[in-house]
Design goal:
By secondary structure, the chain is an alpha+beta fold. It has helices at about 5-10, 25-40, 40-75, 95-105, 110-120, 125-200, 200-215, 250-260, 305-310, 315-325; strands spanning about 225-235, 265-270, 270, 280, 285-290, 290-295, 295-300, 330-340. The protein folds into three domains: about 20-85, no CATH class; about 125-215; about 220-340, Protein of unknown function DUF881 (Alpha-Beta Plaits, 2-Layer Sandwich). Strands 3-2-7-1-8 form a five-stranded antiparallel beta sheet. It has a three-stranded antiparallel beta sheet with strand order 4-5-6, with helices on one face. Helix 8 packs across helix 10.
């Protein structure tokens, strides 16, 4: 009755859109699914979820298809809404995501794919490549053969050169020893002539006594007496070789400790120490007064054995080498000897010093620093 009144007054009536009823899933399915989920576990949950999603999609599609013609005919100017079942809009991909996707999806560079496509997926190596490979192998073999032949030709010459150098060293050493013997013989003749010239009066004898003191202080004469013999032997490493744990400064500390303990004469490796003697290291060799000494290192000191040993055990040198025995396995022994013979040292000729008129200072017992 109310809808017919506007038409009677001359106003056209707007057709009303019929209400479309949407089919709804029966509730019995959901309750049945819930009861089944409780009984079957996770597998049944997944099956029920898929069924419910498929039913909801069917309902939505049916409702859109039923209502679309009606509102399109009523309102033709309205835009058509997007279909809910269509593909979702593409999300823009950033550069990092595209790069990672290219690394995982496209594992081969496009240039390699194009090269393989042009040659029809045939192997890259052909006859020409195999020929070049064989030629390169032959050239490398010839090069190694020439190097081996050259080394074999030079080996006899190098061995002969080594033997010649060794012979030269032995000859020079023999000449040096012969010259040393002649120098010693001439020095003894000079001493006998000097004693014969000065022993005739009191002033001459006093001069001889003073000269003897200076020669003993300068280690210019051989000496004999009791004392201590100290042996330092380094621990053996792999292959029977000795590890060099004792350096020149260690031997310097040991020598200074002997002088401080009251030693009157000291020799290291058979080399008598004179006031200008040094203990140095050149590479792996120890040089005493510029003469190499061999391992093990033997130090001999002349002095009262008991007093010398008592003072020596309280010095820095003794404590250092006792620590070496525990840290590095160095063999360090100290023994008393009733008689030691130390040869004379070569004091050399003074280049700057000249005789003075005043009284000479007392000889110092300080060793190398």
């Amino acid at each position: 009755m109310e809808a017919a009144a506007p038409e009677a007054a001359g106003v056209p009536a707007v057709p009303q859109t019929p209400v479309v009823s949407r089919p709804v899933l029966p509730p019995t399915r959901s309750r049945a699914a819930e009861s089944t989920v409780g009984e079957s576990g996770d597998a049944r949950k997944a099956e029920v979820r898929d069924t419910v999603v498929e039913g909801a999609a069917t309902v939505t599609k049916t409702a859109v298809e039923d209502t679309a013609p009606v509102w399109r005919e009523t309102n033709p100017a309205w835009p058509e809404p997007p279909s809910p079942t269509g593909p979702p809009p593409a999300r823009p991909m950033d550069f990092a995501a595209s790069l990672l996707r290219g690394l995982f999806v496209q594992r081969l560079d496009p240039a390699y794919e194009e090269a393989a496509r042009r040659r029809g997926n045939r192997p890259a190596r052909g006859p020409a490549q195999w020929v070049w490979l064989v030629v390169g192998t032959v050239l490398v073999g010839v090069l190694f053969a020439v190097a081996a032949l050259d080394a074999a030709d030079r080996q006899p010459g190098s061995e002969e050169a080594q033997r010649s150098l060794a012979d030269d060293v032995r000859t020079a050493r023999g000449d040096t020893d012969e010259l040393a013997r002649r120098a010693g013989a001439l020095a003894r003749e000079v001493d006998r002539a000097r004693e014969a010239a000065l022993a005739g009066d009191a002033d001459g004898r006093a001069a001889l006594d003073r000269l003897g003191e200076l020669e003993r202080a300068a280690a210019a004469v051989p000496v004999t007496g009791p004392g201590l013999r100290i042996t330092v032997e380094e621990a053996q490493g792999q292959g029977g070789s000795h590890r060099q744990s004792v350096l020149d400064r260690d031997l310097q500390v040991l020598v200074n400790s002997l002088w401080a303990s009251g030693a009157e004469a000291v020799a290291v490796g058979g080399v008598r120490l004179q006031p200008r003697a040094t203990v140095r290291q050149a590479g792996g060799a120890i040089l005493v007064d510029n003469r190499p000494i061999r391992h093990p290192y033997v130090l001999e000191a002349i002095g009262p054995p008991e007093d010398l040993q008592t003072r020596f055990v309280n010095t820095d040198g003794y404590g250092r080498f006792m620590a070496f025995t525990q840290l590095y396995g160095t063999r360090f022994t100290v023994q008393r000897v009733d008689s030691l013979h130390l040869a004379a040292a070569n004091p050399g000729q003074p280049r700057v010093a000249t005789p003075g008129s005043g009284p000479a200072p007392s000889p110092s017992q300080e060793g190398p620093r």
